[in-house]
Amino acid sequence: MRGAPEQHCDKVNVMADSFNFELVSPERLLLSASVTEVVLPGMDGEMTVMAHHAPTMTTIKPGVVTVVTAEGKSDRFVVFGGFADILPEGCTLLAESAVAVSDIDRDDLAQRLQDAREDVADATTDADKQKAQEYLDQLTTLNGAILPA
């Protein structure tokens, strides 16, 4: 009986633990904060990072990163590829390009989609065509997720 309340308290504390998160693009540091949770668009699917996460390095596909700060505030950022370095005490996402969802430039996203369509059309090998099509599919999904018609 005495062990049960301690176990429950440990689980509650682990869930509430915060860790350092940084979102960096070539242009600037977009966010450096103490957070309790980060949802990343990994190449193999979305993954949630919390404090004490096992060391992991993963490639990031175009998508939305959702961050919950230690104060409970939720922020969303669009990333256009990159990679994340996850350690038990923190996570750094190095994005090829990133912007807060609230700052999305519809014209920029439309241009990226058009460029991706042209890359598919211009691809000369099956491997290049497949890679270009995957990127176009990711951008199309992202566009639908953040800019509903």
**Proportion of beta-strand residues:** 35-45%
Query: What is the total domain count?
Result: 2
Termini, distance in Å? 55 Å
User: Helical region count?
Assistant: 3
Task: Indicate the CATH architecture of the largest domain.
Answer: Sandwich
CATH topology assignment of the largest domain:
ATP Synthase, domain 1
Helix content: 25-40%
Q: Report the structural category.
A: alpha+beta
Membrane topology: Peripheral membrane protein
Subunit structure: F-type ATPases have 2 components, CF(1) - the catalytic core - and CF(0) - the membrane proton channel. CF(1) has five subunits: alpha(3), beta(3), gamma(1), delta(1), epsilon(1). CF(0) has three main subunits: a, b and c.
Keywords: ATP synthesis, Cell membrane, CF(1), Coiled coil, Hydrogen ion transport, Ion transport, Membrane, Transport
Family: Belongs to the ATPase epsilon chain family.
List descriptors.
ATP_synth_F1_dsu/esu; 35% helix; ATP Synthase, domain 1; ion transport; 9-stranded mixed beta sheet; 2 domains; ATP_synth_F1_dsu/esu_N; 149 residues; disordered N terminus; membrane
In short:
One of its GO terms (cellular component) is proton-transporting ATP synthase complex. The chain is an alpha+beta fold and about 150 residues long. Helices cover about 35% and strands about 40% of the residues.
Molecular structure report:
InterPro entries: ATP_synth_F1_dsu/esu, ATP_synth_F1_dsu/esu_N, ATPsynth_dsu/esu_N. This protein is of the alpha+beta class and 149 residues long. The chain folds into two domains: 3-102, ATP Synthase, domain 1 (Sandwich), CATH 2.60.15.10; 104-146. The protein contains three helices and nine strands. Strands 1, 2, 3, 4, 5, 6, 7, 8 and 9 form a nine-stranded mixed β-sheet that branches.
